[in-house]
Prior knowledge:
Structural class of chain A: alpha+beta
Helix content of chain B: 40-55%
Largest interface: A-B, 24 and 23 residues
Radius of gyration of chain A: 37 Å
Oligomer: heterodimer
Mean pLDDT of chain B: 80
Amino acid sequence: xxxxxWLKALKALTRRRRDEDDLQEEIRAHxxxxxxxxxxxxxxxxxxxxxxxxxxxxxxxxxxxxxxxWIPWWLDALHDQLNDIRYAIRALAKNPAFSLAVIGVLTLxxxxxxxxxxxxxxxxxxxxxxxxxxxxxxxxxxxxxxGREVDLSYxxxxxxxxxxxxxxxxxxxxxxxxxxGRGEHARPISAELxxxxxxxxxxxxAELGRTLLPSDELAPGRHPVVVLSDGLWRRDFxxxxxxxxxxxxxxxYPLTVVGVADPRFHGTIVSYDVEVFIPLMMAxxxxxxxxxxxxxTTDRRTTILxxxxxxxxxxxxxxxxxxxxxxxxALARDRPLTDPALRLRVVPFWQAPGSAQSYIxxxxxxxxxxxxxxxVIACANIAGLVLVRGMSRRGEIAVRLALGATRTRIVxxxxxxxxxxxxxxxxxxxxxxxxxxxxxxxxxDTLAAPQRVFFNIEVDSLVIAFSALVACGSALxxxxxxxxxxxxxxxxxxxxxxxxxxxxGRGRLxxxxxxxxxxxxxxxxxxxxxxxxxxxAAQRANPGFDATHVTSVxxxxxxxxxxxxxxxxxxxxxxxxxxxxxxxxxxxxxxYNPLNLxxxxxxxxxxxxxxxxxxxxxxxLSNTVGADYFRTLRINLLAGRPFEERDDETGAPVAIVNNTxxxxxxxxxxxxxxKRVRVGGGDWRTVVGVAADVKYLRINESPRPYVxxxxxxxxxxxxxxxxxxxxxxxxxxxxxxxHVVALDADLPILSARLLGDEARASLxxxxxxxxxxxxxxxxxxxxxxxxxxxxxxxxxxxxTHEIGIRMALGASGLSVVRGxxxxxxxxxxxxxxxxxxxxxxxxxxxxxxxxGVGPTDPVSFVRALxxxxxxxxxxxxxxxxxxxxxxxxxxxxxx
Amino acid sequence: xxLHSSRPDARTDLVHGTLDMLILRTLQWGPQHGYAIGQTxxxxxxxxxxxxxxxxxxxxxxxAKKGWVTAKWGQTxxxxxxxxxxxxxxxxxxxxxxxxxxxxxVNAIGRVMKAAVAPGTEE
Lengths: 895, 123
């Protein structure tokens, strides 16, 4: 609409009042003149006035018609709309019980959807807080031909960055766990080691001081600086305004603070609250846990970088993939790779492999669909209420129709009433959603403790727009059919006060509402049941180890700058002290917890006598463990022996493989013992034992090859102390901690909890999905029960007369109830059938989030069916019974 | 022809145009107020055309918007206040156009109605 049109409209508006007064006066003058002429002809004043008015006709209609000549149609419509809204609010306020019920149901329905949408938004639409257009970021990574994702090494990243033309900039970052502070009071934090262009590529500024710059990426070890997150600056330094230039201890290494990042920014790893940003050039000093102390600036096998950037305008992901692919081919020619054949892939940020977004999105999609179904039930529910209310408003609507209102106008008025309700519901729903989400995130946070989690769950314009859309959609859904029905009424019968219920249309509509609510709630309950069953299955599933009464205490002796010799002594003393403790049965070391969710780096392996086929992915997950590891975690040994103290740096190099690896290369556990392997390019190691398979990353993973090497033959600074004991769990953790502190009070304890708690985090997604779907299912069920109850009791009330007659004629209360029950159950059965067919059709979509149950699990289906039919029965019997107990005489007298 | 309707949107363009023409014609003899315009049309059509106020006033607004008439408050002969409409030069031109169009239409209809032989009755 042009500015000129607006100006004209404005002018029309301002002169409108004046014009209307003028027109009113003109009409008064007209009437006065007409009356004057009649009086001159001898009529008395009263009849003259009346006659003139009658002759003139409808004053309001004339005024409106005249007004329309001047006012643009849309402005006129807007004016009408405002009037309608005002009227709607008045009408709704007159019936607060109805309005509150509708708003309550809508608040619940829209709130659920707003909450799920906010989560989707936080993961896919605006995944990185404080970064504009973060959904459009592209991620560059390597992929083996078995589909295993590999990060990029610094030299490879740098080559791509220098030659690439598809991205407007490419940053590299590696996530590490660090600590801030000293000794036992050190707090574990997430840190990103980043390239110098990190902040520029993201477009993130500094709140204080400066961000990191390309000049912070010149030479290894020469940039001991750090940018703090706003959160860390406030929590640990009390928002000290003079923080810039001060020294902080990160992993007990002194770094100079050069700035504090934009308060909205929380790093580039979804679900992690990254608290410090350190130049990648400091990697050797700060240490990447899984990486040997090589020079990352030249070592192409140290693949540590997540690489991302914004695509240049007009470049698609396919273009970018083609261009980086060509670069990669050129690079492979120039400097042949030592790794198995890799290809580069470019995907949108939300598809980044191994990321939280790729784990959570499938569950969220299911939740989103379920949320919409709850809303559908809510709408069917409200449609029932609106329908019933429409019956009691028949008089009013009949009068409006008689006064000349068009049907379109009546439908519009009723729809606006619904819209007013829906918008109110949406506002409350968004507020409710805002309260729910932090609760959910807090729940995730406790599972992830002590590290902090962060999701970009701010309620922004996207969430508001979504909720508004949902509100309008639901207003149409629940309001349109009843409104149409109301406007199509038979005027004569209403005016004659013919209140006898007509069979036909309206009854069918009510039945349809019951059927649809039953069907959809059955669908929801099947989904919830499947999710709950897979959570049970995941909890029951045997992970291959026994986590009860086992601790997991993580330390990294590099944080207090122990070299390898001192580190070996430290761990030796730690194990000796723990084993001497009478409360501890056994103690051991390990590099990783089992079921640790995060993809630990796979090690390239060679099997003696086995020639890998071209491009075969020969990199497998591995763990570095101490003696007694298998006994402490109660992992069965299928053949051979466990690691022993003699497997030290002077002993013969040994390894233990898991059953899957043994079966793949040697045909079975028994044949594996004595064979030789090389892990990560080291010495040839003799396989001395075969361990049973364990769930290494996730409870729902399929068996994967795995190899263990003894700690003493493969030193790492960062290890986990596992102790098993019969004392109480809290004591066990406290003692394990105490042993660490007794050895060196300066050593930060990165985490100290029960192994069971660590493992529980890996069930998080099942747990979370199951709980959410259960909430959705129960909400849907409750709504459907309310709706069915309401509609049945309305039908019963309408049939009071009929019941009265039947009971007066000798029918028993029981037979009356039976009649209604049969009708109710018939509708319930139709709904249930539709629901089951639909559930069978769509539950396959759940396969990705299910574990241990099929999508057609009969137990879930039967439970849902029983629950739904039970609820329908109760919702039918209760109103029918109360009707049957009324005195037949009073029921008859009513008419 | 009764220009009566309770539903303003049901009026056709033909009726609109014709009513406009009648009003302009009435104003040719000098300024008049709304009631008088209605009465004049009624009298001159020997009570056949009764202009409803619901049609008359929107029509007057329409003509004023197009600039064919101007309005001004004044006194009637009986010393009552009324709004008088006056034809503008543009309105006069419009009236001439409408008149010739109307004459053409009436002649055309007349020719059809007076035709002696019905076409296509040979077979």
